[in-house]
Each structure stands twice: as C-alpha cells, then as structure tokens.
Amino acid sequence: MSMEYTEIKQIISEKDILYTIKSCFIGDSSTIEDRKVLMWNCFLALVLNIKGKIGRVTLENYDNFVNRNSSYFPFKNVTIAVVVFNSQDDSYKNIKNWHGEVSRYCGSYDILQTIIVGMFPDETYHQNLPENIQMAISSIPNSKFFYYYPSGTDEFRKVFFSTVVKIRELLFSDEKLNEIQSMKQKRTVVQKKIIAPQVTSTISSSMNRKLKLASRNEDELVILLKAIVLGDESVSNSCHRITQHILGLPEAIGDDIYEYVWIPQHLIQKENMTIRLRMDVYNHNIPSGKSYTPYFNTLISIIVFRYDDKESFKNVVNWYQETQRYSNLQSNHYFIVGCQYNDTEQIIKDQDTENLLNYISKQKEIQFFKVTGSNWDDLTNKFFSFVDDVCRIEFSKEFLEQCASLTKNTKHTLTLDNTQHTNDRNKQYRPFILDEENSNIERDEESGSLLGRERNEEPMEFEYSTDSCCCILF
Questions:
Q1: Are strands 214-217 and 45-50 parallel, antiparallel or unpaired?
Q2: Whole-prediction pTM
Q3: pLDDT per position as a tens digit, 158-209
C-alpha cells in the first residue's frame, strides 16, 4: 500500500470520519460483471487515513436496468468515475457519453477524476492500443487509462487509491478538515461526561446478558450456546443440510428438508458444565415488517455460500456485517462454509475465497471449511473443535465463577411444573426441556421457530445416546 494512506481496520466512530469520497463504476450493460470484479478487489466501503485525516470511500456499481421513470441519482456528489468498456464489443464508443452523464449530474465537474478501464483478454494490445480506442480515451479530461487483463487486478487497486488520495488533496484541504473536526468536537464537548459511563454500562450490560445464558440444575452448571446458520435465500437448502449433518439428524432432500419443526439441541458435557448447543437456520420466509431477531444471544454465526452461486459468495461480507450490527452480545465467532458439491460447477475461484477470508480475518478471527458432499464427518469434527474453542474463550474460569455466584440460589431453574407435566418420562428428564428457555434467560422475542412454526405445538420426547456423553433432544 502507498505510504500516503493506510486502511483503518478497527471500528471508527462517525464523528471521527471527516469526509466521504464517492465513486461510481459505470459502462454499458455488457460490463456489469467486469465492474463487479473491479469493485470486489477494492471492496464495497473503506475507511482510510489519508495524510493523517480519516475519511470514507464508497463504491457504487451503476444499475443499467433501472426504469427511466424511477428516481435514481447515482452520480450525485461523485468525484471519481470509473468508466469500463469491453475490448470485445463496441462499448468503447460510449465512453464519452458515460463521462458526460456523470459530469452533468455529479455537481463537481471541475474536481471529477475519471479512470477509464479497458477489459482485455490478455496483454496483446498493452503497448499498442487500437486507434479507435485511443481516440475515445483521449477526449476525456482529467482522466487516466488502465489496461486490465486477468492478472492485473492489484495494479488497478493502486491506480484507484492513488486517485482517492488526489481527490482528498483537491477537495479536502487540511485547513478545511481541521475546521470540520473542530466543529464536531464542539458539538460533543457537552456530552463527554456522559459518554464514559455509557461505555462502561454497555460492556456491563453485555456481560449481564451473557451471564443470563447460564442456569443451575442440581449442582451442575448449564449454559446455552446459540448458533445461527445463514446465507442468501438461494443457499437455504445448504444451510439446512449443514445443520442436519453437524447434529447427526436424518438427512432430508428436496422440499422435505424444510419439514424440521424443531432443530434439536445438542448437549456437550464438560468437566465443570453442560453446554446446550442450539442451532437455528435463518428464515427468509418471515414477512417484511414482522418482528424477527435471529441474532439475539447468538455467539456463533455459520455463514454459507455455494461455489456455483456468485451472489451468495459476494454477500458473505454483508451477512458478516449484519451479524456484527444486530447481535446484542459483543462477542461473535464466525465459521464460514463453502459448498462445492460433486455435481456442480465451481464458478468461484479458490483465490477469490482466499481474498475474502483474508479480508474478514483482518477484522475477526474466522474458521473456514469447504464442503464437497463427501466430507460431512470432517465438517462435524472441525465444527465441534471450533465450539470447544468458543467455549474456552467465552466461558472462562472467571465467567463460570460469576455464574456460580449468581445461580447458587436458583437450583432447578429448568424444572417443569408438576401440574402441567405428569408423564414419568418427562419428570425423569425434566432438566433438559427444549421448548422452555431457562427462567434466567431473557426472551429472544422470536415469534416462533426460525423455520416459521410455533415452538410449543406439542410435547417433546427425549432420546439419549448410550454410547456417548452427549445427548440430543427432540
């Protein structure tokens, strides 16, 4: 990376972001996928420290299929236009038209910087561009040309961010940014005495919520560990299959895969506690506007994509950001699963996957597993090893001591009311009831099962494995 800027990895408060540089990737409809490739290598949003001042860079891909009658203003406040053409068609003829569109509506014509990107299959014309393309490029002011071929992506990143630095110098002088920073500080000076205790309160509140995941049954400490399996709607089938194999459930195929009304909990016996692992699959069938809080009290997020589905892969970062935004616990752990079944064609390259994992791992430690359809046992083993690591991190000795002190007077918290359940079998296994959360656990406000049905439709039966220290509840 250039010494003129550094990428900010940690979460930054909005008051510390002094400016925004907006870019838009445009071109004929034949270049949509090419533009996505370029954007992917710069990612969708970045926070940079350019010469000591922190700002945000946003990237937008022009939608060629928006109805002309709809309100669509992608060029407003754009200062960097990336015009893309494909050398294999006539899209180069519209370079001037696209630049004219941005210039007309951006509101900063004098500042606008343009990067013209030609998509070529190889390096054949690198030193000797066709004359018609040269003429189209030469007519664009304040522009630079980038010759793109499959292995030249890193170089484009350098060109793009050097342009970002130039915009910072042209549009946001140090003097102007110092004024903005001073104004923001004046607005918050009155609130500073309030902010400090709020931070402490947030941390304390998060710890209190996590403590409520613990309960005591007789002399045994029982802790609820929630995991959410999620991804695009197109991979819901894979999410269910992954859940089935991890928990050792009977495999279902086709439409039957959605017939699990309850996903049974899995009990993991530890030396000083019992972990109740509860896995839910994100429900895409919840109508818009309905209350749905799938991330409530969730510590593990299993994000799924398919190697034959580009969109599911591109949205992994969005799912990651959504769990970060809406989880009520400050600690989240990520297990990413890529599905490449034997009967499907791999569209996503392994290098793309590696880039994605490297990007997320800079912010959060993650685990990754590639499912092939024949290595389910390996997936199960790796996942439960991951669960052990999460338990070791989240449920430390100090945490367990706090749980013990808080729950010492709350024995039998999982016991059922005898007047409601008289069945001897239910009495015997009373401590492990699935359709009642611990009385110490805050209600997660999920209106029914994540599979779209109510949890309390009928009584549950329990089945214990005699050859293992774990049991599964149905």
A1: unpaired
A2: 0.47
A3: 899 999 999 999 888 888 888 877 777 766 554 554 444 444 444 456 567 7
The residue type of 29 is S
Distance CA 70, CA 443 (A): 42
Exposed / middle / buried, residue 316 (Cβ in 10 Å: 0-12, 13-18, 19+): buried
Q: Helix, strand, or coil here: 343?
A: coil
User: What was the pLDDT predicted at 221?
Assistant: 79
Q: How far is CA 406 from CA 4, 27, 48, 367, 403, in A?
A: 52, 62, 44, 33, 5
Q: What is the pLDDT of residues 299-352, one digit of tens each?
A: 999 999 999 999 999 999 999 988 988 888 878 899 999 999 877 889 999 999
Task: Please give the pLDDT value at position 458.
Answer: 39
Kindly state the tokens that stand for 179.
Answer: 């004024």
Give the pair of three-digit tokens for residue 156: 């484009």
> Sign of dihedral through CA atoms 400, 404, 406, 411?
positive
Asked if 4 and 51 touch (Cβ cutoff 8 Å), the reply is yes
The backbone torsions φ and ψ at residue 415, rounded to the nearest 5 degrees and listed phi first, read -70, 140
Q: Domains of the chain, with CATH numbers? A: 5-64+71-172 (3.40.50.300), 222-473 (3.40.50.300)
- CA atoms of 235 and 473, how far apart (whole Å): 26
